Amino acid sequence: MSHNQPLRLERIFQAYDPPLYFVTLCAAEGRKIFNRNEVRDAFVNYCRRALNRKITVGRYVLMPDHIHFFVQGDRSFDLGLWIRGINRVVAAAVAGGRKQINSASSQRSIWQRGFFDHVIRNAESYAQKWDYVRENPVRAGLVKINEEWNFQGEIAVIDRV
Predict the structure, then answer these.
(1) Residue 68 near residue 61, CB atoms below 8 Å
(2) Which of 21, 77, 123, 144 is at a distance of 20 to 30 A from 84, taking alpha carbons?
């Protein structure tokens, strides 16, 4: 512990190795393009393949204009690089498949520039984030109860206790 840092900060800013990220990706101009079966399937398949590279995606929610998920990799995990990959896969699904991605890439991007990421610091933070995120479809008036939303799930269990 550093003498320049109050004791309480050591508890607040716990170091997790590897870190767990809460990520939000947004559609450009708030376009409503993600709540489709083919987009969900492309997202889920990409995340399942990532398990072979020691990248774990936990819970996720696809909203019409944004995507929330939790992801964790090993020490060599590059979040930005991985996000570029998922952006390509989801954009291809939005465009109608890989064959049409070349024509789609000449058009404007489907993505808002950048993405939001937050390091989850403890189990309480993970549970709080998930409770908030899974209620998004209810708050948006898309369903009456969160269990009715078909564009959410869990790829793999991330134990953050």
Answers:
(1) yes
(2) 123
Q: What is the pLDDT of residues 6-65, one digit of tens each?
A: 555 445 444 556 889 999 999 999 999 999 999 999 999 999 999 999 999 999 999 999
Does residue 87 have a pLDDT over 60?
A: yes
Task: State how far the Cα of 158 lies from the Cα of 13, in Å rounded to an integer.
Answer: 20
48 vs 137: CA distance, rounded Å: 24
d(Cα 88, Cα 93) in Å, to the nearest integer?
A: 9
Query: Which pTM was predicted?
Result: 0.83
List of residues 6+ apart from 7 with CB closer than 8 A: 1
CB 18 within 8 A of CB 72: yes
DSSP state of 106: T
Q: Say yes or no to pLDDT of 107 above 80.
A: no
d(C-alpha 53, C-alpha 57), whole Å: 12
Residue whose token pair is 């291809």: 92
CA separation for the pair 42, 26 (Å, rounded): 16
- The size of the chain, in residues, is 161
Q: What is the DSSP letter of 142?
A: S
